[in-house]
Prior knowledge:
This protein is mainly alpha-helical.
Amino acid sequence: MTHVVLNFYDALNNRELAIAIWLIVAIIWGASTSKIRKSLFQVVKAFFAWKLTVLYLIMLTYITALIYVMGILSLWRMDYLPITVMWGVFVAFVMVFDYMKANDSNFFKSALKDNLKALIILEFIVNLYVFPLWVELIFVPFSALLGGMIAISETKKEFEITKKFLTFIMILIGFIFICYAGYMIVIDFKQFATLENFESFYLPILFSIMFVPFVYLFALYSGYEMFFIRLGFFVDDTKVLRYAKKKTIFAFKLNLRELNGWSKYVNSEWRFKEKQEVDDAILVFKNATSSSNN
Length: 294
């Protein structure tokens, strides 16, 4: 266990160390202030609500299964644990909580495209070359403050000029980092073109691609759950309600897009009183959907 912790610590660069240090400082400061401590407790409590906790456990199980399969295929080993944890915290959680995009018919294509876009590539190159720790300790809170000011400036139109100025500064900083990284790659290409760096590049992409089915299934489950909850409000007969749920599952199975369309259709057009109405509604919706696709 100690060996794993030490490996994880060694894998952190100065920027990640600076972020960790400031997070620890912020948590200690927040925990020592009564008002902030109460708010912090509420946030933590909400984050670990029982449904979310179940989701985290299922997500962890899925990722563990991915690691096991990749280990069998010699695509993962214990040395990759730090980058796996980083991917889990900064990518997997974002993908899960952005599950509404799974309703898009091009979801798989979009998810793959998003993970091959500049965000991962630039982040990989920029984070490969970091500044001394003392510089990063100044840069991290400055970046956080700048990002917060940009977010606030977007709330009112009178802040438009300020927003443009702050955005320009953020773009300028990003450009400087990219130029610095590019310069370091040119003068020391051998240090850049290593197997370790290549693994750091492809592993998050590989994990993200294999994580897409989990996000889709989670979105599908959420879609069914939300529909069944709404259905319970306007179907009084429990037998008709059970029948409507069963027929919905059999009719739409894993098709999230059709399920969401069906949910909106039922919500605006139908209040089932008997089982035959459920069959009629599904038939009408299927025919309408088929006609619109042709």
